[in-house]
Amino acid sequence: MQTVTIKPKKEIKISVEAENISPDKFAGKSEKDIQSLEAYLGNHKTTLGELFSIKVEGRGAAADTKIVMEGNFSRVKRIGEGMSAGLIMIKGNVDMHLGTKMSGGKITLSGNADSWAGREMKGGELIIEGSAGYYLGAGYRGETCGMRGGKITVMGSALDFLGEHMCGGEIIVKGNAGILAGISNNGGKIVIEGNTSRPGSEMAKGTIIINGAVAEMMPVFKLEGTEAVDGVTYKKYTGDVIVGGKGVLYVK
Question: Quick one: which of 48, 60, 59 has its CA closest to 20?
Fold first, then answer.
C-alpha cells in the first residue's frame, strides 16, 4: 500500500494545472520522483514539489495507491484526470475538471467542486460531499458525449447543465440542480432529489428522475401517465419528441 499526502506550501492564488495528481502517475514513485512531476501555475511551467509538500509512505501499484490532499485546493484543476485505479481523498475545495476522463478508482471530496467535475468520465466513482458547479458529468466544448460510465454522487446541489450530452453512467444529486439538467442526453441516469427547472431538453435516450419540484417543464415531452419506480409513483414523460427522443423523465 502506498499513501501520498499533499498539502499546499502556501496560498495558491493563480490557477494550477495538476493533472499529474493521480494514483496512476504516483504509483511506485518516491517523494523526489513525485516532486519532480510537471505542473503549471498559470502559464508558468513548474513542478508539484514547488507548489506542494509531499510525503510518501510505502510503495504500491495504482490500485494500491491512496492520495490524501489536505488544505485549500480551490485553484487547483484537473486532479485525478484519467485515473484508472486507486483512491484520492480531498479535504477541502477544488477547481474545475475534477476526475476528468477517469475510468476507475474513487475520488472523495469533502468540500465543493467547481465546474466540469467528472467531465467525460468513463468509470469509477466520484463523491462530492459539498456542492458542484456547472456542467457536472458533461462533455467539454464541442464534445458529443459527456459522462460515459461510472457514478457521481453530490451531497449538496449542482448548478446548470448537469449531465449535458451524458451517454452513460449515473449521477445522483441530493440537493437541487440548476436549469437544463440532462440537456442533449443520449443515455445514462440522473436522479435529482431536490428541485430543478427545464430538465431533459433535446434528450434522445436515458432516464431522469426528479423527486422535488420542476419549476418549468419544457413543452417537448409527452405525458404517458403514472408509473411506480422503487415503490414511488411518478408522472412519466417521454421525449424530447421534437428530436424523436426516447428518453424517460419521471417527476414526483
Answer: 48
C-alpha cell at 94: 477544488
CA distance 29 to 36: 11
Dump pLDDT digits (tens) for 121-159. Answer: 999 999 999 999 999 999 999 899 999 999 999 999 999
How is 127-176 classified by DSSP, letter by letter?
Answer: EESS-B-TTTT---TT-S----SSEEEESS-B-SSTTTT--SSEEEESS-
Question: What values do phi and psi take at 31, rounded to 5?
Answer: -55, -45
Amino acid, res. 17:
E
All three cell numbers of 170, joined, read 449515473
Instruction: Evaluate whether residue 243 is within a structural domain.
Output: yes
Name 42's Cβ contacts closer than 8 Å, sequence gap at least 6: 14, 15
Residue 50 lies in a domain: no
What is the residue range of 197's domain? 96-251
Cα 236 to Cα 98, 220, 226, distances in angstroms: 33, 13, 5
Q: How far apart are CA 159 and CA 171, in angstroms?
A: 13
Mean pLDDT for the stretch of residues 104-112? 98
205 in a domain, yes or no?
A: yes
d(CA 64, CA 14): 32
Q: Measured between alpha carbons, how far is 167 from 148 in angstroms, rounded to an integer?
A: 5
As to burial, measured by CB atoms within 10 angstroms (0-12 exposed, 13-18 middle, 19+ buried), residue 61 is middle
In a domain, 86, yes or no: no
Number of folded domains that form the chain: 1
